[in-house]
Amino acid sequence: MSAPERAGGIRALAASWRPAEIGLVALRIVVVVTVIVGIPHYPDSAAHRFYDIAHHPGVPWRDTPVEYAIGDYIVIRAVGWGSLALARILLAVVAFTADLVAWRAVARGWGRDPAIRYLWLGAPLLIFIYRRADLVPVALAALALAWARRDRERAGGIALGVAALSKIWPLVVAPTLALERRWRATWTAAIAFGAGLVAWIAIGGFGALQQVGTFRGSTGWEIGSTIGVPVWAITGQHRFEEGANRAGTIPPGAPEFLLALALLTVTLIWLLARHRDEQPAGVPAMAAVAALLVCSPVFSPQYVAWLLPWATAAGGPGSGPRR
Amino acid sequence: VIITGALVTIWYVDINLGPGWNQLVLAARNLSVLVIVVVYLVEALRGRRA
What we know:
The complex is a heterodimer of chains A (323) and B (50).
Chain A: H1 3-15, H2 19-37, H3 45-55, H4 70-80, H5 84-110, H6 112-122, H7 126-129, H8 135-149, H9 153-164, H10 170-173, H11 175-179, H12 183-204, H13 207-213, E1 221-222, H14 228-235, E2 239-241, E3 244-247, H15 254-273, H16 283-294, H17 308-313
Antiparallel strand pairs in A: 1-3, 2-3
Chain B: H1 2-12, H2 21-49
């Protein structure tokens, strides 16, 4: 393609965009350039940790504790192989790309208005979200459900399976596929997730699941979590433990109780959603992810990004009653 | 999302909120997430009964 043709293509693309889309994408470009250029004062804890993990010799989870699942580990190796400065740059590029992919996925799956809402809703998080990898599973999960809606069920299932191998939360939006009767996507997601899980356990051993589930065996409540906030307020003390600020001590049985509560709430949400005329990927998916966040002993600021695609799809039209 | 964005911005620009304010803002954030779940369940259960 010649330069004039390329310029014409860009002009045509820009002409079809609404002012809000142009402004909000331009804002994202400014932010990613700012992160890449680097403001040394700003904390880059994820880049530091990714660099450490990627440079640690031996098998992850077996030889050294790693609090990330295998999907995240692939991103970590892709980002952290060079210097710390390069890790920060690559992380910003990956997060920025994932943000745009999630935006386009929402547009493809649920329409242009929800996609613009995605750009608006994500804007307050831009100051730090390009310093974290949380938008990668967000993009994959949004892409998965959008593809399934567009009859690309196998691709959608694989994307959802891969997303759930990065973070556990995409599993709670998976019932969307069943409610929309996308059975091929549902089975493909289950097979992709199962195969990835077996490969992960073969590499890292069963201890890998425990390391991820307990954040390398940390003992305190993360200070932003539902229980961590009051514990921090009452005790007035917190400490830095296993990569996060934590307060108090998690009593025996509490993680199991919270997991059971999360499972019960998420199950109830999806059982009720079967009888409602609403977009399954909208309010029910958002409520399911919110239930997981409420019951989690860790609620880092970047976790709110998990809600974005579902919050933006929530305003869309329903898909008809499923009685 | 707005509360989180505002809070992290405050942290990044090193504004000291004063004792108790971080916890209060985080509690408001968590309450708003909890409200999503509770309102959905209440509305859905009410819809089932109607």
